[in-house]
Each structure stands twice: as C-alpha cells, then as structure tokens.
Amino acid sequence: MFKKLNDLRKGYPVHGDNLESIVPAHDYFGIPYPVSDNELAWEKILSKYFYAMREILKIFINARGKG
Prior knowledge:
By secondary structure, this protein is mostly helical. It is 72% helix and 0% strand.
C-alpha cells in the first residue's frame, strides 16, 4: 500500500507521468486514470491508508503485549 501511495505521488504534477507505475497505483486504489473526481479519489486513498495504519497499530499493540 505504501509503495503504491508513493507511486501516486510520483505522478503529474509533481513529476511527469510514468504510466508504468502510475496506472497500477491507480488500479490498486480503485481510481480512474486520469482522475476525474478528486474528492472520491482522496476518499479511496485515505480509506486504504487508514486501514493500513490501523493494521500496523494492531501489530505494535500485540508485540507490546508479548514483551
């Protein structure tokens, strides 16, 4: 997820579009390329991001309880 998020960041306008990594990142997040609805795109991206962060937090909590 974090690699795909970084791939999105590498797209236009930050950098020129490298379709080799940009399109798969859009596919992963379920957003069309090019983005036509910015609000919906951000909702999808943030949803996956927050899910990943919650999963990481669970790992830390479990590891802390075992130590």
